[in-house]
Sequence to fold (230 residues):
Amino acid sequence: MKKYLAELIGTFILVFIGCGTAMTVGCDSVSGCGYILTAFAFGLAIVAIAYGVGNISGGHVNPAVSLAVAIRGDMSWKDFGCYVVAQVLGATIAAAILALIFGAGNVTDMTGGFGSNGLAGVNGSAIAGLLVEIILSCIFIMTILGVTSKKQSHGSFGGLVIAFTLVAVHLIGIGLTGTSVNPARSFGPALVALCTGNATPMIQLWVFIVGPLVGGALAAVIYGMLESDK
Fold:
């Protein structure tokens, strides 16, 4: 149970710091600096998670990462299911606390949904949003697989490599989809937004579930081929 609790806590940290920063500084075309601040907030949250609870659960805090790890055979499918439940709970609790702190009527983020993701940056196109999420998720998760590979060691700097990669995908992705690359991170804020009267994030949520999961599966397959000695 400790590793599941660690995943819940880690995902809570990610959403609370990342989405909380987006709500505080605003992420729109006018407040361009908000993109950078939010990107680094998510990245720095990963640093805290990697060195705080990563040694207990692996610090997945992302169903797409857990899927890639399960596909590679490095975790059981039972653990995968329990990880996903813990991650979704952690994200939802964090979003609910953000709602209490900011108030339902005092949201300054890009979508008006407690840091939830949206398709405004791709003119509402679900196909474009799906493509963005698949590509960014694949890049991010391939980096994680490379850093954690048993064939090469990055020592104590692995968490920093993953964190800066997350910053990079946020820098390009925030203006397009808000950058999910993580179904749990998207589900929590979307659910809380729905409960406070904003249904749009929940309607578009499927893009931010399917995209990262497909990207994670592709990362597992592609990295497996690159890593193979055959």
Notes: The chain has nine helices and no strands. The radius of gyration is 16 Å.
